[in-house]
Amino acid sequence: MDQLLSPQEVADWLGTSLRFVRRLVLERRIPFIKVGRHVRIAKSDLEAFIAAGRVEAGSVPTSSRRRSA
Question: Does 45 map to a domain?
Fold first, then answer.
């Protein structure tokens, strides 16, 4: 079984506030498990969330490139 983390543990892992993690859960941007009234996030889901946000070096979004006149 995968390790289950509390929202505070996830915030510590990400280096963010607890409020940010709660917003991720509220907006359903990260999978979570309800244990009674407590919320837990599987470590594998957290790792997948981090990997999904990875931006490779050297890539530039098309909207921020300068347009020549």
Answer: yes
